[in-house]
Amino acid sequence: MFDDFFIRALVAGIGIAFVTGPLGCFVVWRRLSYFGDTLAHSALLGVTMAYTFDLNIAISVFLISSVIALILIQLQKKTNLPGDALLGLLAHSSLAVGLVVIGFLTFIRFDIMGLLFGDILAVTTDDLFVIWTGGALILIVLKLIWKPLLASTVNYELAEAEGLNPDRAKAIFTILMAAVIAISIKMVGLLLITGMLIIPAAMARNISDSPQKMVLFSIIGGLLSVILGLYSSLEFNTSSGPSIIAAALILFILSLFKIKQSIKLKN
Amino acid sequence: MNSNNNILVKLNNAGFRQSEKWLVEGVSLTVEKGKIVTLIGPNGSGKSTTAKIALGIYKNIEGTVEKYTTKVGYVPQKISIDWTLPIRVYDFMLLTETIEDSAIDEALSLTGVIHLKNKNLGSLSGGEFQRVLIARAISKKPELLVLDEPVQGVDYTGEIALYELIKKISDTLNCGILLISHDLHMVMTATDHVVCLNGHVCCSGSPLDVAKNNEYKALFGEKASQILTTYEHKHDHVHSDEGEIKKN
Question: pTM above 0.95?
């Protein structure tokens, strides 16, 4: 069944959309889009590590992204630089180091475009296994920390006062971010992963009135984007990442009409 | 170690310093089951800080906090909610604990906002939101209730009703309440113990004792003191504008 590359890509993309939907909502709510970008940029270093030491790409990317997240937390504690400057520093330096390392790896034929923008031809049966088991794990953990994470997103002090341990939830969420980037990098490409997290969630915000609904619509939006994007990628021979993100953008634009309607109703 | 198992939270000489400035120091107080302890004091005297120390929100504190309950309801003074999150009153009621619908309805009815149950939190007025905050804190039937100016922005008749509700909750749930209030009438009539703060504990005791105290009078003026008493005695220090203590 998974013999056809397109079916593999579709199954992979659907698995990814189930995970990026809920996580993307938290990225939007907690204003973490640039943080997601930084982790994604650092993923290039993870990919080069994978090629150098012959590791699974997802696992290697997950490790490097987690390390970058830890470094960020340390830098935030030890320096007086603002958060966005630190994020920019880490994002661009890890991207640069990754590209430099690629320059040295002359013995490997590298598809840089595929790495940056995703490649549906690259998805293997092993990748499907990583995406679906990794994705299931991410969702189970997210379900476990849902209450403290949501409560501290609404108000940190309320969550802390009423014994929900928001700091632990935040730390776990950071690891989940690294994990989702790791499993989606081949498909969406490292430059566009944050788009996959944010755009369906932003679309869902326009048409939801509760956190649960926003998560649901975000998943649906992600699934539609993947399906539409992959079919057009096949049809027009475009990279899979940009095609998926463009489809998500179209859904977002459509959701704007719903906002206009509800504003009209209010007046 | 808890010799008196009515104690819910106990502060021993607690204080909190932020970037070299003491927000509050040397606070000792005990909240017991069924008792209302009220913190009073001027703006910036460390009332909210003291409440946050008791709640465990501030971690690097001086002194110690002993907490004997995990069932806590909190109504913060300021709450900044980011409206990128779509959330209805109903979702907000379930924020920190899963409670039954009947308990949600009951709490919202008690604070008079049951009709707002399915409204978006962002569309409420200040007073309505305050009532929802109180409803959320009491709906989980806490053992310790910390209320930081719970009736701010609530209309006058609502204010009285809510204070009566708070008193009633303390009796029916037998929960301890740490209350921050500017309403001296409320403080004097419903409170068991008053702690008057001004960067440190100025005076504390029963409402009547505190009303008689000259430091209290110095802080709140003669009028406030006359609410209950005209008793007078000499006090041994005054406060500079920076809040420092100067012995007479």
Answer: no
